[in-house]
Write a structure and sequence with these properties.
The complex is a heterotrimer of chains A (229), B (236) and C (367). With 229 residues, chain A is mainly alpha-helical. Chain A is built from eleven helices and no strands. Helix content of chain A is 77%, strand content 0%. The radius of gyration of chain A is 21 Å and the shape is globular. In chain B, a hairpin with a 2-residue loop joins strand 5 and strand 6. Chain C has 367 residues and is α/β, with parallel strands linked by helices. Chain C has two domains: 176 residues, D-Maltodextrin-Binding Protein, domain 2 (3-Layer(aba) Sandwich), CATH 3.40.190; 118 residues, D-Maltodextrin-Binding Protein, domain 2. In chain C, strands 1, 2, 3, 4, 5, 6, 7, 8, 9 and 10 form a ten-stranded mixed beta sheet that branches. The chains are: A mainly alpha (229), B alpha/beta (236), C alpha/beta (367). Chains in contact: A-B, A-C, B-C.
Chain lengths: 229, 236, 367
Amino acid sequence: MDPITEGVIRAINLIVTGDREVFSIAALSLYISICSTLLACVWSIPVSAALALRSFLGKRTVKGLFNALIGIPTVALGLYMYLLLSRSGPLGYFQFLYTPNGIIIGQCILVTPIIVSFSTSALESVDPDLRMLARTLGASGYQVDAAVLREAFWGVTLAIVAAFNRAFAELGVAMMLGGNIRNLTRVLTTAIALETAKGEIALSIALSFILLGIVMSLSIAINLARRPS
Amino acid sequence: MSAIETLGLSKRYDSLQALDEVNVRAPSQQVTSVVGVNGSGKTTLLKILAGLELPSGGKVFVNRHEVGPDELRAHCTMVFQKSVMFSGTVYDNVAYGLRLNRSGSGDVRERVRSALALVNLEGFEKRKARRLSSGEQQRVALARALALEREVLLVDEPTANLDPANAMIIERAIKESAKSRIVVLSTHNLPQARRLSDRVIHLYRGRVVEEAEPSRFFTSPSDERTKLFIEGELQY
Amino acid sequence: MSFMLSRSALTKMQAVLVVAVIVIGVVVAAFAYTSLSPAPKAHLIVSTTTSLYETGFLDVLKTNFEAKYPNMNVSFISQGTGLAIQTAMRGDADMILVHDPAAETKFLQGGYGVNRKIVAYNFFIIVGPSEDPAGIAGKSPSDAFKLINSAGESGNAIWVSRGDNSGTHTKEKSLWKSVGLNATVLRTESWYLEAGSGMTATLKLANEKRGYTLSDIGTYLMNFNNKNIDLVKLVEAGKSMLNVYSAIADDPRNANMTKSNFDGSMQFIKYLVSDEGQNLFDTYGVSSYGQALFKPYIKLIQSQSDPTLIGWIQEYAFIGGSECPPEYQYQAEGLYSTQATVPILVISIPVGIEDRKMMPWTRSLKV
């Protein structure tokens, strides 16, 4: 049997038997990426609301900046965050390196442009006459914004899902800031890299199936939930 | 008698003078129509009356009191030419304005029901608003405005894209609601203006060039441009 | 009933919003709490080499150490030795466990490290394809390198280097140097490949290309046994192939290292040189590979079973006459007080063991 087939079979076996190592890595990955996405929402959504619903000097530059940062290479970001978070660096007081919280911070920064850009887009594609409509029906300033936000709900949700996918599937930040430490900062992507380098193909394949499985399930679930609209 | 009126109302967009020294008066329990070719300033006038735009000059009075845009927004509500539906049900749409003020829920339910009845959409509460036909959506938009029970109803070319059946329902609802309101209607549908209005105003390039009750307006207008307009020969 | 209908759509959206806010609030609170509160267990970060890491030995070390000291949580960051040292220099690791005496010396001399202890050793080996096109099997290391060089130039052999400033890479460079060749020049040759990766990746590359490479015995045996590679051992012996592992703690007086876990490092280093720790070195790999992947240094000193070997190690890995000159010792009670008698070879003279013991310049030294 060639190594690929053998790997796939062993991978299915690992998943079906609920191999503890595999699933604890998956759980940690989920935990870290969910946390980082939710944390990023805290500032990203207000920022995108401001960008979409208010005008100010330099708005176009700011929007352009966020758009440009969507695809920032994760290793580059990982490197800069590493220098910032290093014990001898400006944020060294918190000792974030080689801890899950360190990865969370890095991924927060990583996904912020995604949430901001996509949400702003979603908000802007709400019918401009809607604001006028809300106002003529009696809405105050904030109520008008709320109406727009409500209309853009699915757009914003998609932005958040896209952000989560990016965080969940990235390698550079998790590797640089987490150090791939077993049971502490070893997530699906770093584990795949490590196990492949060690020649543990079956384990790598198993992990990659879980990675893909979660990402795809999430996308499918969101699309299904969206349908009656 | 209560009325909404303007004095020397003007609106300028860059190089375009959209409204120029407009004086109009729309009393309550009447339908006042504003007619004119496309681009004559009808929509702009209505938006200013609705408090959705600021005039460049002039004043607006409600019941003899001068009012600014905030007060106008409280007194008036506008139905646009192309209706916008909130995502959600018909009920959500019609109840939107009512819920903003957080009236008691029983009250809201009743007001929605009677507003929908006015436009022949009883029973439509749970339908998804965006799935309705454009005619039905326009009727929802009208019901939405009527449910607020505001003093002034402004309607901008309400039947421009509608088939005769829907148009008739809308016209009937407008006529009915005028019994307890001030209604200002803009249209370029002349028979409609004739049918519905108690008073017709002709707006040409932002200026009032004729104002009369319908029979005189349509049979013997005094202004040359009005004559051309009625015959369909008037260019912008 | 009317109550429910009018409330339904509005509160669904509001409910979603409330839930979202609560969840986010919890996440923010948890993040802040875990970031700012001190960890329940003391965290020790050890910067180490890939050759120790990839064999799985460190997992065993961690399990046993934490079993003995349950309040400790050890994390190993494995990088090439060069990188491992840089990480420690920034204070991002609490101590290093590496195998490059020259770099370790600089680490001490730069004021970054204290309390160096040699803990284990093994040998590098040259591995290559069984067909051995350069004909190096059984030769001395110097001859082997010369043969590989000429075979490479005539297009018959390929050499794969770590290329990552690791301890293995440094050793390789010094071996080239010892036969008069400069690795920096060789890099540009087409037969000299640089993997830029850890030992396993380098071995696999050499395997693919049917080339020769320098490896530590531990990683090689592991990969060979797992059938990742089928390269064979061609040159195993020789003083120049010695591979010595040492541990050095961060100097807590260094400005970058004020947050380093000095106590934890000392605890770990003492464990490494304790009987229990040394036993781990002695036994790891025996069941899987038939031989221990690493050899305990302290035990070697205590038993004095091979003075030649001890001499080699000390000549190769000692700094200024000892494993840790006194100026680089700091709060090191108990660490340097084994009562072993260690002969210092000032000159390398091939003499018999008995003769050496009689030489007047043999001295007793506290190690």
